[in-house]
Amino acid sequence: MKEIVIISGKGGTGKTSITASFAYLGGKDIVVADCDVDAADMHLLLEPDFKNSEDFYSGELAIINYEICINCGKCAEVCRFNAIQLNKGIHFIDPISCDGCGYCARVCPVEAITNEIQNVGKTYISNTKAGNIMVHARLGIGADNSGKLVAKVKNEAKRIATENTAEMIIADGSPGIGCPVVSSLSGADFVVLVTEASVSGLHDLKRVYELVKKFKIKAGCIINKYDINQMLSKEIEKFLIEENIVFISKLPYNEDFTKAMTIGKTIVEYENEELKTIVIDSWNKVKQILT
Description:
This protein has helices at 15-26, 43-46, 74-78, 103-107, 146-163, 179-185, 199-215, 230-242, 256-262, 273-290, and strands at residues 2-8, 30-34, 52-64, 84-87, 90-93, 113-127, 133-139, 168-175, 190-196, 218-224, 246-251. By secondary structure, it is of the alpha/beta class. It has two domains: 2-47 and 128-290, 3-Layer(aba) Sandwich (Rossmann fold); 58-119, 2-Layer Sandwich (Alpha-Beta Plaits). Strands 3-6-7-2-8-1-9-10-11 form a nine-stranded mixed sheet, with helices on both faces. Helix 7 links the parallel strand 9 and strand 10 (218-224). The protein starts with a strand and ends with a helix.
């Protein structure tokens, strides 16, 4: 079983559209993992049925028991995050600022503060219109620990892939280089980098590839909207050669990508034969690399 992770250095490159198209083409032979838990949207294209769901608990929050609190203020004195505020003579905890470190509970002379583990999201296991199983999640608004939620999604995807003897896991990673991306790269066999022909596209491609190199994972690249700046597209191709990154394909700018998304379709389901052919060829090339 092989694992492909599709990432981009920045948002808006078309990463999720390409991932969903690959997932559609892979059909029942693959398991899909949507690891972009901070802004999950692959469900808009693959129509999962949300058959199974489970609450995700991670991180702690300090809670004050006002029945025994004496408002001495010792907790506020030691809080490094300024999460404990005073309002009308009563101390309260700002849940957004609280890091759950537990220091306030340790110094409370009457043990009025406890830490409680938080429900910060949900994970789902769904059947999709492509005939495959999709593991996805939704992180609560303002919640932390997205890296841990990504790990949960990936572990579930691996378990399901093993049980069903699936050929491959396709994971849609988060944009950027943060903790969720690091978590999504763990255990991957191949990384597909999706970029665009813009100054920020090239800059962030270089940045995210530095992260991929640390994991020593072989990578390929798809240049989306290459024709909006063909000079920069050539620069990207030069960078790929220099870094020994596989050049998979390049896609022209076309509003049909957006039109397909607005009706809940991947581009390989849409009527644009040019784009469909390029994406299918890209998928076949990725599969050949992994065989």
